Amino acid sequence: MSSLKKKKIRIGIVGYGHLGKYLVQTIQDDDRLELAFIWNRTREALDDFKKKELILEGLNDFPQRQADLIVEVAHPKITHEWGPKFLQNADYMIGSPTALSDQTLETSLRNASDKHGLYIPSGAFWGGEDIKKMADRGTLQALKVTMTKHPSSFKLEGDLKKKIEEVSEEPLVLYDGPVRDLCPLAPNNVNTMAAAALAAHNLGFDKVQGSIIADPKLENWHIVEVETWGPGSVENNTAFHVKTVRKNPAKVGAVTGSATYASFFSSILGAHGKGPGLHLC
After folding, report:
1. Cβ-contact 271, 117 below 8 angstroms
2. Do the beta carbons of residue 185 and residue 175 sit within 8 Å?
């Protein structure tokens, strides 16, 4: 008796930078998945992509491709403009969750995810499930994420764009404060912090703290430190406390560390079919 062949999950990829290219290739190499479409803001970037029939010329045409899951790896602006529309037709994974520092947008997306799932990949965020469990129980008191990178790995906006020019030979703290205020200033760099703020939902974007440090001597790594405080007295230094340090191999100038690519793909594998609402994966 022959077994029924399991239906492949159809995935649409929005964005064809380094991560997008990796995902497109990996999806095509995986028997469980099928590429529904690929779209990029700059059409020329797709000139070398051989399967032209999979290229989506305009995002307005995405419903025709019948994707089960749409994955954004382009820019937070995509979620602002297209997130609620994507959720009308498919599950949606936000590769740039810094977009959700906009409270109005977060509320809009949660409301739009009444039929399909809204997914947040863990990326370089370590310990997310444990932190979410503490937030669920109300025992999470504080959370801080510190990211240290070579100055050329930061893509910054506003005042931080000027501040990074002050970096000389020693590490410089570019920002230290609430994650909500940092996300618009470093939308491509602090998606890990946005994921942390969503996992730590009893604290959120306003109470989770973020710090970014530019270190000109850090040429081979991105370092992400996550500090968590739980039950007990934080003031008296008797609270439950965990600190993790993640060293992600990264070339000078790379926005995303190499280990994050595989982590992101693992999130895709766990992203489809969990039902409506927001899910961390």
Report:
1. yes
2. yes
What are the tokens at 222? 């991105």
Task: List per-residue pLDDT tens for the chain, 281 residues long.
Answer: 444 567 899 999 999 999 999 999 999 999 999 999 999 999 899 998 999 999 999 999 999 999 999 999 999 999 999 999 999 999 999 999 999 999 999 999 999 999 999 999 987 687 888 999 999 999 999 999 999 999 999 999 999 999 999 999 999 999 999 999 999 999 999 999 999 999 999 999 999 999 999 999 999 999 999 999 999 999 999 999 999 999 988 888 888 777 788 889 999 998 878 899 999 98
* Its pTM surpasses 0.85: yes
Residue 115 phi/psi, 5-degree rounding, is -120, -30
Helices (H), the chain: 18-28, 76-87, 103-112, 128-137, 158-163, 179-182, 191-199, 204-207, 258-269
Angle, helices 103-112 vs 76-87, to 10°: value is 20
Q: How far apart are CA 37 and CA 24, in angstroms?
A: 9
* 83 closest CA partner among 39, 96, 136: 96
- Residues with Cβ < 8 Å from 200, sequence gap 6 or more? 131, 132, 134, 135, 140, 143, 207, 208
| Number of Cβ within a 10 Å radius of residue 78 | 22
Rounded-to-integer distance, Cα 198 and Cα 278, Å: 9
Q: What span, in angstroms and rounded, lies between the C-alpha atoms of 279 and 207?
A: 20
**Burial class (CB within 10 angstroms; exposed 0-12, middle 13-18, buried 19+) of 15:** buried
**C-alpha span between 248 and 236 (Å, rounded):** 33
